[in-house]
Design goal:
Rossmann fold, six-stranded parallel sheet, 17 helices, elongated, disordered C terminus
């Protein structure tokens, strides 16, 4: 079977590489000639563990190819996956111009039956627009070629995307014909041999499933952050609370770690898009609007703690930052809390010295020469007035605290991911600030409001 993946970004590259890994002939298509030339030369535009090696291996076996010619890919492929970007417009809705452009080109160039599958995250009802765009182009050609559309949303976690694709929790597919269902069942068979389920449904439901899943996870994050902020006020320890509620199987332990808010390419965009879809249908998604509001304010929490500690005078202070990407194992800084925090620090007159294992080049696109960049985490601490940990990279979890204390002007750590133990930090004579734990007050000094 030959398939085409249109769009060689994060989702497209992972999808193409993993399909080729199980023996399927794949061509990844992109309009960006420089990107395609780089890919042909083994230069990968994103950081994802294991992806570079997988792409190289399957290129060498001629199962994975790259092209700028969508017309050729459409002609040669039985299934075309649309994996182009759907960036948010100013009103929060998803921009479908790239998706529909691919659909129109499919209608222009197909010569026999094709299955066109939306892999991009698209609003509910996009499949109808895709189908209409293809049909309009066929009518211009006076052609009645048969085709199907389907929805196959991705559920990839950045940093673990290959594992997620090869060993999925579930594969969600929306179809409207037995022919397309049979074709996709055959395509995904290598990934379901170990019992991973394929869930077939109507296309509208598949489109909604993607948004509902990400919105639920975002809701859990904003909920635990809201509770963490209350814990700090009343004297509770959010780590104990998290363990207490996470042991309930109905709630679970995942996505209830307090921090400085969610970021990335999915959660912020998808929550906004679902809210916009509801507004367009005269329905008020009150819960998700609150989720978005909590997340927006949470991104300022650590800056507020830093500003309060220095009594509102950050001018001339030097802040060392560990972690710039929105999560570990990726260089993605889209909607990362670090953007909000660093911009506020700079506006307050502080100097920023930053370290991240893989995101420094990406950070330079955002900050240019406004901050200093370091390739050694400890070098970034020299003569800084405090350390702020913004991303929970593994190498930050057990650092050399004695060295940190020697390098910093004052032993102050602002832990935006709660990766250190409060009692240990206090025993080491650090001024320690984290999320959801009042590190100043003692339990017997707290007076609860009744």
């Amino acid at each position: 079977m030959k398939i085409a993946i249109v769009g060689s970004g994060y989702v497209g590259l992972v999808t193409g590489a993993c399909f080729s890994e199980v023996g399927i002939d794949v061509v990844c298509v992109d309009v960006d000639k420089k990107k395609i030339d780089n890919l042909k030369n083994g230069i990968i535009p994103i950081y994802e563990p294991g992806l570079e090696e997988m792409i190289s291996r399957n290129m060498n076996k001629n199962r994975l190819n790259f092209s700028t010619s969508l017309a050729e890919a459409i002609t040669d492929s039985e299934v075309i996956f649309i994996s182009v970007g759907t960036p948010p417009d100013e009103d929060g809705s998803a921009d479908l111009k790239h998706v529909l452009a691919v659909a129109r080109e499919c209608g222009e160039h197909m010569e026999d039956y094709k299955l066109i599958v939306t892999k991009s995250t698209v609003p509910v009802g996009t499949s109808i627009k895709v189908k209409n765009a293809i049909q309009e182009e066929l009518e211009k050609r006076n052609s009645d070629i048969d085709f199907d559309v389907a929805s196959n949303p991705e559920f990839l976690k950045e940093g673990a995307a290959i594992e997620d694709f090869l060993k999925p929790d579930r594969i969600v597919i929306g179809t409207e014909s037995k022919r397309s269902e049979k074709l996709l069942n055959r395509l995904y068979k290598p990934f379901t041999l170990n019992g991973h389920p394929v869930i077939f449904m109507d296309i509208i439901s598949a489109e909604m499933t993607k948004y509902a899943a990400n919105s639920m996870l975002a809701t859990k994050i904003s909920f635990i952050n809201d509770i963490a902020n209350l814990c700090e006020i009343v004297g509770a320890d959010i780590n104990n609370v998290r363990k207490g509620i996470g042991s309930d199987s109905r709630i679970g332990k995942k996505f209830i770690y307090p921090g400085i808010g969610y970021g990335g390419s999915c959660f912020p965009k998808d929550v906004q898009a679902l809210i916009k879809t509801a507004d367009e249908n005269d329905y008020d998604l009150k819960v998700l609007k609150a989720v978005e509001a909590v997340n927006k304010s949470q991104k300022s929490i650590l800056f507020d703690k830093i500003n309060t500690h220095f009594e509102g005078n950050l001018k001339g202070k030097t802040i060392a930052i560990w972690g710039l990407s929105f999560k570990p194992q990726t260089d993605d800084m889209r909607e990362a809390p670090s953007l909000e925090i660093i911009n506020k620090l700079l506006s307050a007159g502080a100097k920023v010295k930053a370290y991240d294992p893989v995101a420094l080049d990406e950070a330079k696109h955002h900050f240019g020469d406004a901050i200093d960049y370091y390739t050694d985490q400890y070098e970034a601490l020299l003569e800084a007035d405090c350390l702020a940990v913004l991303t929970e990279w593994s190498e930050f979890r057990v650092p050399n605290f004695k060295m940190i204390k020697r390098l910093l002007n004052t032993p102050i750590i602002f832990d935006g991911r709660n990766i250190y133990d409060k009692d240990e930090m206090e025993a080491l004579d650090y001024y320690y600030h984290c999320i959801g734990i009042n590190t100043k007050a003692k339990t017997n000094e707290i007076r609860l409001a009744v």
